[in-house]
Structures are given as structure tokens and as C-alpha cells.
Amino acid sequence: MDIVVFGAGSLGSLVGGLLAREHDVTLVGRNPHVDRIERNGLRIDGELDAHVFPTATTDGTGLDADLAVVTVKAFDTDAAARTLATGSLDAALSLQNGMGNEATLATHLDCPVFAGTITYGAMFVEPGRVECTGIGELALGPRDGGSSPLADRIGTAFGAAAIETTVAMDMPRRLWRKLAVNTAINPVTALARVENGAILDPPTADLAAAAARETAQVARADGVELTDTEATGAVESVATATAANRSSMLQDVESDARTEVDAISGYVVDRGEELGVDTPTNRTLATTIRTWERGQDLR
Ligand SMILES: NC(=O)C1=CN([C@@H]2O[C@H](COP(=O)(O)OP(=O)(O)OC[C@H]3O[C@@H](n4cnc5c(N)ncnc54)[C@H](OP(=O)(O)O)[C@@H]3O)[C@@H](O)[C@H]2O)C=CC1
Ligand SMILES: CC(C)(CO)C(=O)C(=O)O
């Protein structure tokens, strides 16, 4: 397959690098990372080891591909979609955290847009090098659920590159369950400046669980069957499995970078308002993170 990976930061470089073991990959990213990849290739180390030579560019306009994998931060999705729309794609797949990315992509792109969730961990080490901090799995499928031969083809292509992949018929449920995890872990760890495992202890556990329960309530109002128990259970198991991790939102706050709060807690608040579900915990968490953002000179 010809695959464009739009957003060659931590995750995009890892996924693009793994795909490059089997497919023709073009990474769209920033310099000096792109420059280094063009000259010396991309090294992946940590839990996986690879040295690959994908094409890399800082200019994402006019690209033609079978598939675009979108891995920019949620707040960059609109710009990424507009740039990708200048080329020609057969399909697009979001692997981003937060909600609403697929809808944004579909607004601009004239091709099927698939939803994805990924539990691989990636960390940018230096230009030309990323670390795989955890081997997980990838699920992808139609963004409204159901099956599609094109999703099957994409799943087969990821599998051929030895990426653990499930083609799922229940992506809306999976996206909401991941959102419940992110609404519980990300803002709480970012505000308290603690690793993921710390949210398992009372009284923080109550705060995180309240955020997850509200997210599940909004999901149900949106027609997706996600019980409170399933949402809080997912939070507990992810926080346990990633106990020593610093969440992406904590890392953003620590490096004075903009967070994805609008697509995480903010999404739950906004969708809850539309559906008549009050979300006081998510509202408080979103407001506090946004207040922090406004007070910073963000990168
Ligand atoms: N890292 C991880 O382990 C995981 C991340 N995710 C999700 O994946 C997404 C990406 O995360 P992550 O990789 O950590 O983020 P990064 O910030 O490391 O990667 C995004 C990259 O895209 C670049 N970018 C944005 N717009 C453009 C553009 N127009 N042209 C070229 N490059 C562009 C950014 O550059 P710049 O910053 O200069 O704008 C940045 O280098 C997020 O939604 C995150 O929540 C999900 C699971 C795991
Ligand atoms: C699952 C979790 C919470 C892992 O840290 C994550 O997705 C993030 O940090 O954004």
C-alpha cells in the first residue's frame, strides 16, 4: 500500500516506521526530524527495534495515497484535513485521542474516513529516532460501526507490517470507552502532576471515576451502550497497566504545550449539553486545564 502518515511526531513516527517495514510510506512532519529521516532513515528502539527508510517531507500538500493515517494532535486535525484534501486519497484513518477527529476529517476529505484506537506507546527521543514505550494493539473500523471491505483491507495491511490489529465493527463504543479512560486519567494526572497509577488511590479515584461515569452517561445519551461499570473498569485496568506512565496531558503541561482537553473533557461537556446531560466533573476539569493554558506562553 501507498500510505501517508500525517503528523510524524511520537506516534506517527512509530506507526509509520512500523508500516514502512512492509509498505511505501511517506511521513509528513517537521524539521529537523524530517531532514534526519531523509538522510539517515528512522530508528525505532525500546520495546521494538527497526531501522527503516520511509520518504519524509514537511509539505503535506498534493499527496496521492491509498491511505492517510492521521496522527497530529486533535487541535491540528482541521488544518491537517485541509492539507490532505489537496491530494488524492482512497481512505483516511485517525489514530488520535479525543473525539470528533473523524468528523473533522470527513468534512474536508472526499474518501471514507475510518476510526482507530491504539494502545502502543511512543516517545520522541531525538530527530530521526523514536522509542516504542509499549507494544499494544490497534483497532480500526467504520466510524459509525459495522463492517467494510476497505477497513478489512487496511487491517490486513497493518497486520502484514506486524502491527497487532483488530478490524472492529463497534468503533463508536471503543471510541467512547477510550474517551472515558482519557477523561478520567488525563486531566486528573495533569492537574495533580502524578503518574497514571496514582489515580487508583482514594480520594483521587473517586474524581477519576466520576469523570468516567459522566462520559458513559453522555455516550448512552448518544446511543452507544457503555455502562458506568464498563467505563470505570476500563479506567482501572488502563491505570493499572500504565501505572508508571505520565499521561500525554501531564507531559503537555510539563512542557508548556497545548493540551487535547477540548477533544477530551471539553467534548464530553459540549456533547452532554447538546443531549441534555449535565457533566459537572468534566466541566470543572476542562475549565481548570483551559485556565492553565490561558495563563501560559504555550509552545
Ligand atoms: N504518543 C503516544 O504514545 C500516543 C499518542 N496518541 C495520540 O496520537 C496523537 C499524536 O500524539 P503524539 O504523537 O504524541 O503527538 P506529537 O506532538 O508528538 O506528534 C504530532 C506531530 O505532528 C506534527 N504536525 C502537526 N501539524 C503538522 C503539519 N501540518 N505538517 C507537518 N507536521 C505537523 C507536530 O508538529 P508540531 O508540534 O511542530 O506542530 C508533531 O510533530 C494525539 O492525538 C495523541 O493523543 C494515542 C496513543 C498513544
Ligand atoms: C491511555 C493513556 C491515559 C495512557 O497514558 C493515554 O492515552 C494518554 O496518556 O493520553
From TrEMBL:
GO annotation, cellular component aspect: cytoplasm
Q: Name one Pfam family in it.
A: ApbA
Name the source's superkingdom.
Answer: Archaea
**What is this protein called in UniProt?**
2-dehydropantoate 2-reductase
| UniProt record similarity statement | Belongs to the ketopantoate reductase family.
InterPro entries xrefs: 6-PGluconate_DH-like_C_sf, 6PGD_dom2, ApbA, Ketopantoate_reductase, KPA_reductase, KPR_N, NAD(P)-bd_dom_sf
Which residue intervals define the domain Ketopantoate reductase N-terminal in the entry?
3-144
Task: Identify which top EC class this enzyme belongs to.
Answer: oxidoreductase
Function per UniProt: Catalyzes the NAD(P)H-dependent reduction of ketopantoate into pantoic acid. Catalyzes the NADPH-dependent reduction of ketopantoate into pantoic acid.
As recorded in UniProt, its EC number(s) are 1.1.1.169
